[in-house]
Amino acid sequence: MKTTLTDKSIFEMQAEICKTLTNPKRIEILSVLKTDERTVTELVNALGASKANVSQHLAVMRHKGILTTRREGVNIYYRVANPKVIDACSLMKEVLFEQHMAKKKAVTGV
Question: Contact 46/11 with Cβ under 8 angstroms?
Fold first, then answer.
């Protein structure tokens, strides 16, 4: 199959999203948001991180289209924009777990 300009654009977009998800704290945020939307305060409490740190990560993910928000009174709720992002992260986690188990088996023979 011949790669078209459109395909290259998609590859670039995919690389940008992958770069955004190279930070473990961002993946942890996605893990907390996988089942429900949360406020910054709820995320800070769940993650045990500073509000400034969590807010910075949320802003990056929102800018990249990974998260969306809604306002209710003074609260802003964050949620995953597309559940397939969670699916992709879960799939990668499974791959890494399987690799880890295969290496462990190779080392221990069990």
Answer: no
Whole-structure pTM over 0.90, yes or no? Answer: no
Rounded Cα distance between 44 and 42, Å, is 5
81's tokens:
């924009």
Structure-token pair, residue 13 = 């977009």
The two three-digit tokens of residue 64, written as one number: 């990249």
The CA distance from 54 to 66, in Å, is: 15
Tokens 């890494």 sit at which residue?
96
The pLDDT of residue 94: 94
If we measure between CA atoms, which residue out of 39, 25, 38, 21 comes closest to residue 86? 21
